[in-house]
């Protein structure tokens, strides 16, 4: 401390009291007289590593040891108006200084532990009365002008590279003054404003508007302390607003004492010394948050982060953003809250802990009134948006999908909850079934059970929904078909599958039951619960279902048992005989098709039953054809029914998948029957014969057919028949010749190969060994393989 020509050193110790104001014990531990006649006008404490105190009194600079207040010998500079030391943070045991002399000189010095070294001197236009210095340069002022001097280092030597005038005061009543804010940033005193500037005289920051013209000021992050007559005005440098006004009397000097996490200012008046102590940044932030001054709190936290430090890793900024986020969240400003949560990558567990009644996750929500429900909807909607936005980071955590599900129970429709469960139920623990039961989402419980392979429990819930055993209907249940679909898509216990199919029958869902019986059929052994005998016995009370099952068993499963095929034929017959002739056309066509295609029904049994009525002559013909009694079959179709077109079509069907000779036999029999009744219906039979003989799907021996054609047929009628006969004969001749030629060519190739083999030499000696048994050959006979290897004859016989 300083008083008149003395420098005193005091030790301050804070008293631990319960009062709101801090109290200190002040004890002087050293003092020294500077040997000058005038008071000390300026004092600076150098870096801790240097342990030096620099004083200015009576235009003389003297250097003291900060530990014992002893003079550093041989260091005394005279005719000095003011000085400044560099605020460079990493200077080691030395510090750069700049001085203003009475001879209008600006001098640079380097102060170390033992001496002060002169570096450079520069003439200036006017005497400099205030200055500030950092690693980039010097900002100084005269009575009316502000100057900047840019520093550079050449060969480890500091020097002034350039200078300029950046501002001029035209009012002599305004005191010129400057101070350093941060590296490369300065504040100069103007007409009721504080102007932020750089060494180039530019700045992007708006001026600070002073309430009164200050005499001097000093920056102590984040505040600007200005002296206005007998008062200290404190401005926030973050928002440029005045924060406090303190009466101290006439102030002579301001000294900034940096400490960890806070700065203290010593204010020296004529007869008193004040300690202006700022509260910690953390407490300042707390106070701002309590007053809901959120932006100021965040800006204050960010201002503690240096240029080189990343804001994303600064713990104070992160904690402040988190607190502001939750304040905004509570105030239902959810968009701003989510932006802050996203900026700090907040874990969703912290949000869950903040929302009342969210934990435990598998517990049901309480009943909300309208106000609380509206509030929770906004919170949970924001929470889900945040979860989905950060899904890449969160989806691997165990409670991610469970948390979303619980939030969805409040904010989403029942249909959307079901859709969510269908996609993600496997990631949700099964004990969440109580939560879904409480929400009356019974179908959702079934989906959850299904995702965890609880098949019987899943089906049991669906059955209860269908049977309306729950107190309320579940409108999300799509229908009973879901049960059948579930069985068809999975391989679960076959007895369970059979019981479900049986239950579906009882619920009159015959089609769904048949799908299960067909899909789950394996074979016809008695070991298979879905064998046709068991299913048929189960379906006897359900004739329509039985018919559908038999049709699919015969045509889809390709079961070739006479019981199935005969039973199906009898069902068709029952339906035909129970209906009038006008209503049975569709069923009759199905019966006829089945009689033609199937080879497994009991023909005699069916024939005996059909013969009991005169309505089914065509079916009788089909049965005779199935017994290879083609002539009687065609006799019924042609002579009795006179259905010539059907006879031709039936001949085509009989020719399917038969050999060429068998097709000719069937065709010749139909030709013979038609030709025999040509006199009854000459015109119709003639046209039918022409179509029959020209049908490329039916084969004839045309040499025999041409001999038996009516002699009165004209050449024009025979033209198409003759054309087909010639083509058929030519095709047959060409095919026969090609077959003979190919056989002859193959035979010649084999003869040539045989001749080559006979001409080739095969050497057998005692050094040759059989390829199979690896023994020597003791006789000249051997077998030679195409690859040239040789084996014993008995070895070749054994292998072949």
Automatic annotation (TrEMBL):
Domain CNH: 1-261
Pfam family, one: zf-Vps39_C
Entries under InterPro entries matching the protein: Clathrin_H-chain/VPS_repeat (IPR000547), CNH_dom (IPR001180), Vam6/VPS39/TRAP1 (IPR032914), VPS39/TGFA1_Znf (IPR019453)
UniProt KW Cytoplasm keyword: yes
Annotated Gene Ontology cellular component terms: cytoplasm; membrane
Superkingdom in the source lineage: Eukaryota
Residues spanning the signal sequence: none
Sequence intervals crossing the membrane: none
Localization per record: Cytoplasm
UniProt KW keywords: Cytoplasm, Protein transport, Transport
CHCR repeat boundaries on the chain: 520-686
A GO biological-process term: intracellular protein transport
PANTHER family: CNH DOMAIN CONTAINING (PTHR12894), TRANSFORMING GROWTH FACTOR-BETA RECEPTOR-ASSOCIATED PROTEIN 1 (PTHR12894:SF27)
Descriptive protein name: CNH domain-containing protein
Taxonomic placement: Eukaryota, Metazoa, Spiralia, Gnathifera, Rotifera
């Amino acid at each position: 401390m300083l008083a008149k020509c003395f420098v005193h050193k005091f030790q301050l110790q804070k008293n631990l009291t319960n009062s709101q104001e801090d109290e200190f014990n002040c004890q002087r531990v050293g003092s020294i007289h500077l040997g000058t006649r005038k008071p000390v006008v300026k004092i600076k404490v150098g870096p801790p590593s240097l342990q030096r105190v620099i004083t200015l009194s009576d235009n003389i600079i003297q250097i003291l040891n900060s530990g014992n207040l002893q003079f550093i010998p041989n260091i005394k500079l005279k005719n000095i108006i003011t000085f400044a030391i560099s605020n460079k943070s990493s200077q080691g045991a030395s510090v750069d200084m700049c001085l203003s002399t009475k001879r209008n000189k600006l001098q640079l010095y380097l102060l170390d532990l033992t001496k002060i070294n002169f570096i450079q001197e520069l003439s200036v236009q006017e005497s400099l009365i205030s200055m500030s210095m950092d690693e980039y340069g010097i900002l100084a002022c005269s009575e009316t002008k502000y100057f900047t001097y840019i520093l550079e280092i050449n060969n480890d030597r500091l020097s002034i590279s350039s200078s300029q005038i950046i501002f001029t005061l035209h009012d002599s009543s305004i005191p010129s003054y400057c101070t350093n804010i941060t590296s490369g940033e300065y504040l100069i005193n103007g007409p009721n404003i504080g102007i932020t500037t750089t060494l180039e005289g530019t700045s992007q920051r708006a001026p600070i508007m002073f309430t009164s013209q200050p005499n001097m000021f000093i920056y102590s992050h984040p505040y600007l302390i200005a002296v206005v007559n007998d008062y200290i005005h404190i401005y926030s440098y973050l928002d440029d607003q005045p924060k406090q006004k303190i009466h101290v009397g006439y102030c002579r000097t301001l000294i900034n004492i940096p400490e960890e996490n806070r700065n203290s200012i010593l204010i020296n008046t004529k007869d008193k010394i004040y300690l202006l102590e700022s509260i910690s940044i953390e407490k300042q932030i707390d106070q701002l948050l309590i007053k809901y001054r959120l932006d100021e709190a965040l800006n204050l936290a960010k201002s503690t982060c240096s240029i080189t430090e990343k804001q994303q890793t600064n713990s104070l900024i992160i904690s402040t953003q988190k607190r502001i986020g939750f304040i905004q969240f509570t105030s239902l400003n959810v968009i701003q809250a989510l932006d802050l949560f996203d900026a700090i990558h907040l874990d969703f567990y912290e949000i869950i802990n903040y929302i009342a009644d969210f934990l435990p996750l598998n517990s049901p929500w309480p009943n909300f009134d309208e106000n609380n429900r509206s509030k929770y909807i906004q919170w949970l909607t924001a929470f889900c948006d945040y979860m989905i936005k950060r899904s890449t980071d969160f989806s691997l955590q165990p409670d991610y999908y469970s948390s979303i599900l619980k939030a969805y129970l409040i904010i989403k429709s029942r249909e959307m909850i079901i859709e969510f469960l269908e996609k993600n139920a496997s990631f949700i623990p099964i004990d969440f079934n109580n939560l879904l039961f409480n929400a009356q989402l019974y179908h959702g419980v079934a989906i959850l059970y299904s995702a965890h392979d609880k098949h019987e429990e899943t089906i049991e819930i669906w059955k209860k929904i269908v049977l309306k055993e729950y107190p309320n209907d579940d409108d999300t249940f799509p229908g009973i078909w879901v049960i059948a679909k579930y069985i068809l898509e999975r391989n679960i216990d076959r007895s369970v599958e059979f019981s479900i199919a049986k239950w579906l029958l009882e619920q009159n869902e015959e089609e769904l039951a048949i799908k299960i019986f067909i899909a789950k059929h394996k074979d016809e052994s008695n070991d298979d619960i879905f064998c046709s005998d068991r299913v048929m016995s189960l379906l006897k009370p359900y004739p329509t279902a039985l018919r559908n099952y038999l049709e699919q068993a015969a045509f889809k499963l390709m079961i070739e048992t006479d019981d199935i095929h005969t039973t199906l034929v009898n069902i068709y017959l029952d339906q035909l005989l129970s209906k009038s002739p006008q209503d049975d056309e569709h069923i009759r066509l199905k019966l006829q098709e089945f009689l033609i295609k199937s080879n497994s029904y009991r023909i005699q049994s069916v024939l005996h039953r059909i013969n009991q009525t005169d309505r089914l002559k065509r079916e009788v013909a089909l049965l005779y054809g199935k017994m290879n009694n083609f002539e009687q079959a065609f006799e019924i179709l042609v002579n009795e029914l006179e259905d010539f077109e059907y006879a031709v079509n039936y001949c085509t069907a009989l020719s399917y998948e038969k050999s060429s000779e068998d097709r000719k036999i069937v065709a010749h029999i139909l030709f013979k029957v038609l030709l025999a009744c040509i006199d009854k219906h000459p015109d119709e039979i003639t046209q039918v014969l022409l179509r029959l003989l020209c049908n490329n799907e039916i084969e004839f021996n045309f040499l025999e057919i041409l001999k038996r054609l009516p002699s009165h047929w004209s050449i024009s009628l025979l033209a198409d028949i003759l054309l087909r006969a010639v083509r058929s004969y030519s095709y047959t001749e060409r095919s026969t010749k090609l077959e003979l030629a190919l056989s002859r060519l193959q035979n010649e190739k084999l003869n040539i190969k045989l001749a080559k083999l006979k001409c080739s030499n095969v050497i057998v000696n005692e050094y040759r060994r059989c390829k199979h048994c690896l023994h020597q050959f003791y006789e000249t006979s051997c077998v030679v393989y195409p690859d040239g290897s040789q084996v014993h004859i008995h070895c070749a016989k054994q292998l072949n």
